[in-house]
Amino acid sequence: MNTFPHVEPNRHTDQDLPVWHRKAQKAYRINRIIILLQMVAALVMCGVIWMGVEKVLH
Prior knowledge:
- The chain has one helix spanning 26-57.
- The chain is mainly α.
């Protein structure tokens, strides 16, 4: 909810940022993708471990 409805929020695009800014660098985008892949892999591994424990206990 915006407390000032007539004021546009200040949004920066990658083109507005200077070259030295961390969000303008390619490594920042690659790191975001790697972190996302790690989170998905962690959820998959939790499922695999959970199924393995269920198989051992039953």
